[in-house]
Amino acid sequence: VYQPQIQIRTGEIIGVEALCRWHHPRLGQVAPHEFIHIAERTGMIKPLTEWVLNTACRQAVAWKRAGFPALRMAVNISPSHFLDQDFVPMVERILGETGMMPTELELEVTEHVVQTHQQNLSIFQALKDLGVLLSIDDFGTGYSSFASLKHLTFDHLKIDKYFIDDMLVDFKSRLLVGAMIEMGHNLDHGLIAEGVETAEQYHLLRKLGCETAQGYLFSPPVSADEISNRTY
Predict the structure, then answer these.
(1) Do 13 and 60 contact (CB within 8 A), yes or no?
(2) Going by C-beta distance under 8 Å and a sequence separation of 6 or more, which residues neighbour residue 12?
(3) How many angstroms separate the CA atoms of 34 and 201, rounded?
(4) Among 22, 87, 143, 204, which is least packed, fewest CB within 10 Å?
């Protein structure tokens, strides 16, 4: 399924995040954090990630060929797979097989892998050399490293829903959101706010200078067909 990302200034959809869902015939809807954890533990995360990337890229190309405006396609990448030596060649192969423009694919990684170890640096650089976009997911909730922001090149920082939820009533949360946005701009990063659920949150983010918003105020994650039929 796909959740729209909205340009705050215009209200237009400029991208989507591809999200994995699993409906089991006996267990019903299985929560993503449950089956992703199992996939990581059992080694299934590699084929799952490859399938998601392939499916998402093919869908983005299909939308483009159908005449829709180019949308940025964001895909979450597991930390365990991101640091695998086969990851970058897999991304390059999928880009070639699907015809996806690298500049329209954004890979989201958590702060867990945003470290300045040489292996991490080389992987980030290899992905940037391919031309793909990179973003830090759930920014501010992990062990943020300013050294990493100095040495690694990111396109976007995603402000976690944890801060968006209470920024209207909690002064500290509002200050932190404002500080993240200002710091991101000073470092030439775009800002994406996750979990936006109310018009008040939307208007405050616009006032603070955030460029992009994502959340149930606009749409839950929906099928590709529903994205095709919606106007934002």
Answers:
(1) no
(2) 6, 232
(3) 29
(4) 143
